[in-house]
């Protein structure tokens, strides 16, 4: 699972000063339960109104039931530096994002 990959690489993202945040259409309580169950240290945001999904084109309407998988890397000012569109390998994706973050933010 993609989220577990980020969990397992958390220390390396932290060393770069990279904050990981997940978002879903689930309720805050459902997200908290999932976070606790999987041992995620990073935040899971509830996007019930689809605002984030619409902004980052992970949904095409407020009525869409499931978000399209999308990853974005933002700088400290909130500017989008990288975007990964659907079609990536979920298992390998967190390591790919880490490698790209090391290039962007590493020493």
The level-1 CATH class = Alpha Beta
Main β-sheet: number of strands, strand sense, barrel status?
2 strands, parallel
pLDDT below 50 for ≥5 consecutive residues: which ranges? none
Major sheet: arrangement of strands: 1-2
Q: Quick recap of the structure?
A:
This protein has 107 residues and is α+β, with helices and mostly antiparallel strands.
Report what the structure shows.
The chain is of the alpha+beta class and 107 residues long. The protein has a single domain, classed as Glutaredoxin (3-Layer(aba) Sandwich), CATH 3.40.30. It contains 5 helices and 4 strands. A two-stranded parallel sheet has the order 1-2. A two-stranded antiparallel sheet has the order 3-4. A hairpin with a 5-residue loop joins strand 3 and strand 4. The protein is globular, with a radius of gyration of 14 Å. The relative contact order is 0.18. The mean pLDDT is 94.
Secondary structure layout plus pairing:
Elements: H1 2-8, H2 10-15, E1 21-24, H3 28-38, E2 43-46, H4 51-55, E3 71-74, E4 80-84, H5 93-105
Parallel strand pairs: 1-2
Antiparallel strand pairs: 3-4
Name the features.
two-stranded antiparallel ribbon; two-stranded parallel sheet; 4 strands; Glutaredoxin; 107 residues; alpha+beta
